[in-house]
Write a structure and sequence with these properties.
Radius of gyration: 23 Å
Helix content: 40-55%
Structural class: alpha/beta
Strand order of the largest sheet: 3-2-1-4-5
Oligomer: single chain
Number of strands: 5
Number of domains: 3
Bound molecules: flavin-adenine dinucleotide
Length: 437
C-alpha cells in the first residue's frame, strides 16, 4: 500500500517567475495534462538564506503568493508551499503526492537552468515527466535570430526582426484553467513571513497597473526622473505578476517607445540565454583587460550617495530608500562608477542586485555592461556621460535632486570626489590601453 498522504494522480505546476493564475502558460499547459493541477511554490533556501531579513522582495513574493493561495482555495484547491532547498523539497513532494507530471515556465538564468536540469533528472528517474514552456518572454532562445541562425548582438536589427516575428506569429490566446482543472484538496499550510526568517520591509511595491495616459506621454516624459513618467512595472515583470503578452498588446496600441523597452528586456533575456558567461565576464573580452582602480572608499561614497555629483547621489539614495532607480539615472550612476571612478562594473552590478526590487540578472548585467562599454551594443568607451550636463538636461530645476539630497546647495553637501575632466581623460587613457594591448 502507498504511504503517500495524497494518492490521487496529480500534475504539479511549479510557479517561479510566473506568479499569477491568469494567462500563465505553464498553468494552461498543466491543465491539459490529463490530471488535476496542484500549484507549488518553493521558497528556495539557497536563494533566501543569504538575504537580509528585511528584503522587500521576499515580502512582496509572500504577499503575492498569499493572494494566489486565496484564489486557489476559492477554487477548491490549494497552494503547496515548501521552504527548503529545491532538491529536498522535491524529495518531500514525491513522497507526499502521486506526481505524474511537472510543468514550469522556463527561466533563462544560469542558476535556474542548472537547477531545472537536476530536477529533470531526479523526476525522470522516478518516471515523472518534467515539461517547460515559454511564459517569461514573448520570444525566446532561437525564435528571433539572424538569417544564418546566429543570435543578434545589436538591438536595432533584433527589434526589427522581433516586430516582424510578432506580426507573423502573435502569441495565441489560450483559455485559463477552470475550477474543474485544479486538484481538489483542503488548504495546505502557508508559512508566515517570520517563519521564513523575514520581516516586513518599509519599502512599498508599485501597483501592477499600466494606464493609457502614461503610455500616451511616455515618449516625452520617460527620461525625466522627477516625474512619474515610467510605469514602474519592472518588479512585476521580473516575478511574472503581470503577463508580458497582455502588457505588450496593451502597450503597442499606444506607445511604440514603451513597446521597444519591453523588447530591450527580451533582447537581454536572449543574450543571457546564448551568452550566459556575460553575467560575470565582459561580452567583449578585451574589456576584461581594463585595469580597474577599485578604490573601496570611493565605492562606499558611490553606494551611500555622497560623491558630490548630485544626480549620482540622488539616484543612489533613491535606490537605497525605495529599491528603485529611474532608468536615466541608472545609466548615469553606472557610467560614473565604471568610467569616472574606474571601478569594475561587476561591483556595481552586485550592489544593484542586492538593492533593486526589480533585480533581473539579464537586464542588470546587460545594463551594466552597456554602461561600462563592454557589452553587446554598448555605449562606446569614449562616450562618457557628464553627470552635470545630464542633470541640466533631465533635472533642470533640481526637483529630483532636492527630493533625494536635501542638503544639496548647503555646506553639508560633499565636494566632488573626482574632477569630471580629469576623470574623463584618465578613463579614456585606461580604456584605450586595455583595448590596444
Ligand atoms: C545599469 C542598469 C541596470 C539595470 N538593471 C535592471 C534590472 O536589474 N532589472 C530590470 O528590470 N531592469 C534593469 N534596468 C533597465 C531599466 O532601468 C529598468 O527596467 C527600468 O528603469 C524599470 O522602470 P520602469 O518599470 O518604470 O520602466 P519603464 O520605462 O516603464 O519600462 C517598461 C519596462 O520595460 C523594461 N525595460 C525598460 N528599460 C529597459 C532596459 N534598458 N533594459 C531592459 N528592460 C527595460 C522593463 O521591464 C520595464 O519595466 C537596468 C538599467 C541599467 C542602465
Amino acid at each position: 500500500m502507498s504511504r503517500k498522504k495524497h494518492t490521487a494522480p496529480v500534475t504539479i505546476c511549479w510557479l517561479r517567475r510566473d506568479l499569477r493564475l491568469s494567462d500563465n502558460r505553464a498553468l494552461q499547459m498543466a491543465a491539459r495534462s490529463g490530471h488535476p493541477v496542484l500549484c507549488l511554490f518553493i521558497f528556495d533556501r539557497d536563494i533566501l538564506d543569504p538575504l537580509p531579513s528585511d528584503d522587500a522582495r521576499v515580502g512582496f513574493l509572500h504577499r503575492e503568493l498569499d493572494a494566489i493561495r486565496a484564489e486557489l482555495e476559492q477554487l477548491g484547491s490549494a497552494l503547496l508551499v515548501k521552504h527548503d532547498t529545491v532538491a529536498s523539497a522535491w524529495a518531500a513532494i514525491c513522497d507526499e503526492f502521486a506526481v505524474k507530471q511537472v510543468v514550469v515556465s522556463r527561466d533563462y538564468e544560469p542558476y535556474a537552468r542548472e537547477r531545472d536540469e537536476k530536477i529533470y533528472d531526479y523526476l525522470k528517474d522516478r518516471g515523472i515527466e518534467f515539461k517547460g514552456t515559454k511564459d517569461h518572454v514573448i520570444f525566446e532562445k532561437n525564435e528571433v535570430v539572424k538569417a544564418d541562425g546566429t543570435p543578434y548582438t545589436v538591438f536595432t536589427p533584433y527589434s526589427r526582426k522581433w516586430k516582424e516575428h510578432y506580426r507573423l506569429h502573435p502569441p495565441a490566446d489560450v483559455p485559463d484553467p477552470g475550477p474543474g482543472d485544479f486538484y481538489p484538496c483542503a488548504p495546505l499550510p502557508f508559512p508566515t513571513l517570520s517563519a521564513l526568517g523575514f520581516k516586513p520591509s518599509p519599502i512599498a511595491i508599485p501597483p501592477k497597473v499600466l494606464n493609457t495616459a502614461l503610455l500616451n506621454t511616455y515618449a516625452t516624459r520617460r527620461d525625466l526622473p522627477a516625474v512619474a513618467g515610467t510605469s514602474r512595472l519592472s518588479v512585476h515583470l521580473r516575478f511574472g505578476t503581470v503577463s508580458i503578452r497582455k502588457l505588450y498588446a496593451q502597450a503597442v496600441r499606444h506607445s511604440d517607445k514603451y513597446a521597444d523597452e519591453l523588447i530591450w528586456r527580451e533582447f537581454y533575456q536572449m543574450i543571457l540565454y546564448h551568452f550566459p558567461h556575460t553575467t560575470h565576464a565582459s561580452f567583449k573580452p578585451a574589456y576584461d583587460r581594463i585595469r580597474w582602480l577599485n578604490d573601496e572608499k570611493q565605492f562606499a561614497a558611490w553606494c551611500a550617495g555622497t560623491t558630490g555629483y548630485p544626480l549620482v547621489d540622488a539616484g543612489m539614495r533613491e535606490l537605497n530608500t525605495t529599491g528603485f532607480m529611474h532608468n536615466r539615472v541608472r545609466m548615469v550612476v553606472a557610467s560614473f562608477l565604471c568610467k569616472h571612478l574606474l571601478i569594475d562594473w561587476r561591483w556595481g552590478e552586485r550592489y544593484f542586485a542586492a538593492k533593486l526590487l526589480d533585480f533581473d540578472l539579464a537586464s542588470n548585467a546587460g545594463g551594466w555592461q552597456w554602461a561600462a562599454g563592454s557589452g553587446c551594443d554598448a555605449a562606446p568607451y569614449f562616450r562618457i556621460f557628464n553627470p552635470t550636463a545630464q542633470q541640466e538636461r533631465f533635472d533642470p530645476d533640481f526637483a529630483y535632486i532636492k527630493k533625494w539630497v536635501p542638503e544639496f546647495g548647503t555646506p553639508a553637501y560633499p565636494k566632488p570626489i573626482v574632477r569630471h575632466e580629469d576623470a574623463r581623460n584618465r578613463c579614456i587613457a585606461v580604456y584605450r590601453q586595455a583595448l590596444t594591448e
